[in-house]
Recover the amino acids of this structure.
């Protein structure tokens, strides 16, 4: 049996699908990977190269497709579709598991006629682009596309409650499954050692507090809100793991706000989980999410959270129990929440422990149970 794991960019497969590929191989599949290794990735070039080597070491065939992250790149979309259709015809896959909006569109269109020959197509929606509060443009473009492509989807996997409920109401696929995220290894994170040398690297004193974020430096991740919120706090540092187009802008903003020496843009890091263990508070002010992995990892690390009150985040954080939910643009609320946690050591500890207990429901073992059922399911089976 052969399975193809496909996403727009390699970093999505690297960060979110390692366990799925392992599971498929344990079930007897030969696993291939198709994605864009050259553009649009959130990982460093070094990490992408290492990932390719890891795939080859595991004897997983790798195919480069020019899948873009922007829907306006029509030429690359058409080219990717043609290349993928040819690949599917040649390799005769039994299963295709696709991810990301554009990657999911290309894959499901390319697989259409081969489904009649027994090919099963699984699509994981890591957060629909249409959701409560989304722009009319998103609804106008993405909802009709997903609705139409549902007829070419054997199993639609949703990873947050809002998407699952919506998909069921609108009957967006033959079979719709809820999975508690992509699965994180909670015990591994919980038991990671604390390396206080990391704080010293940034010049953070013992009495200073570290607010920490993980996320691409783009508009959606909304890091500006935290920069503005911490200007109201004394002796607080803010570090972000991630790279992106807004790096220069965020550095300039930090200088303008007079906190340049307290803001640390760490770039892409392979040790992000280790940084979680030395932080005091996790900040996550995104405008849109599915079910964020970095937030779950912060919970597993025992951190209290201040985050935006949006889909996905509300599945994870119980307000005033595991942290504080704030309006995505409510700088005052974020500042108040951060200030409250900075001043109250016991509350930070209690909320961190609460999060560690809650996030166990999103552990990789729970997700594995769901995914094994999905991979075994066939259209002619009931339930």
């Amino acid at each position: 049996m052969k399975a193809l794991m496909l996403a727009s960019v390699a970093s999505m497969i690297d960060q979110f699908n390692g366990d799925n590929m392992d599971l498929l191989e344990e079930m007897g599949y030969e696993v291939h990977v198709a994605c864009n290794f050259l553009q649009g990735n959130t990982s460093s070039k070094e990490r992408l190269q290492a990932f390719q080597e890891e795939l080859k070491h595991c004897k997983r065939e790798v195919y480069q497709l020019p899948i873009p992250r922007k829907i306006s790149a029509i030429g690359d979309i058409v080219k990717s579709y043609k290349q993928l259709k040819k690949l599917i015809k040649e390799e005769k896959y039994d299963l295709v598991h696709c991810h990301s909006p554009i990657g999911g569109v290309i894959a499901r269109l390319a697989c259409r006629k081969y489904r009649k020959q027994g090919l099963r197509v699984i699509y994981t929606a890591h957060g629909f682009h249409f959701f409560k509060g989304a722009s009319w443009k998103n609804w106008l473009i993405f909802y009709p596309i997903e609705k139409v492509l549902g007829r070419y989807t054997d199993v639609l996997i949703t990873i947050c409650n809002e998407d699952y409920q919506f998909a069921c109401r609108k009957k967006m696929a033959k079979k719709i499954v809820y999975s508690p995220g992509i699965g994180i290894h909670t015990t591994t994170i919980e038991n990671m050692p604390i390396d206080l040398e990391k704080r010293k690297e940034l010049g953070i004193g013992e009495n200073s507090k570290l607010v920490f974020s993980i996320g691409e430096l783009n508009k959606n991740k909304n890091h500006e809100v935290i920069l503005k919120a911490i200007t109201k706090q004394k002796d607080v540092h803010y570090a972000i793991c991630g790279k992106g187009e807004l790096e220069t802008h965020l550095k300039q903003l930090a200088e303008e706000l007079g906190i340049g020496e307290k803001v640390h843009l760490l770039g892409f890091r392979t040790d992000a989980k280790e940084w979680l263990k030395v932080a005091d508070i996790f900040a996550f002010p995104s405008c849109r999410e599915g079910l964020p992995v970095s937030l779950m990892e912060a919970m597993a690390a025992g951190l209290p959270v201040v985050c935006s009150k949006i889909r996905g985040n509300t599945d994870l954080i119980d307000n005033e129990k595991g942290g504080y939910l704030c309006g995505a643009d409510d700088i005052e609320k974020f500042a108040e929440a951060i200030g409250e946690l900075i001043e109250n050591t016991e509350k930070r500890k209690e909320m961190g422990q609460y999060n560690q207990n809650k996030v166990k429901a999103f552990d990789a073992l729970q997700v594995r149970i769901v995914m094994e059922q999905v991979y075994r399911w066939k259209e002619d089976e009931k339930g």
Observations:
- The radius of gyration is 21 Å.
- The chain has two domains: 2-183+363-376, 186-361.
- The first strand starts at residue 2 and ends at 9.
- Residues 143 and 271 are 37 Å apart (CA to CA).
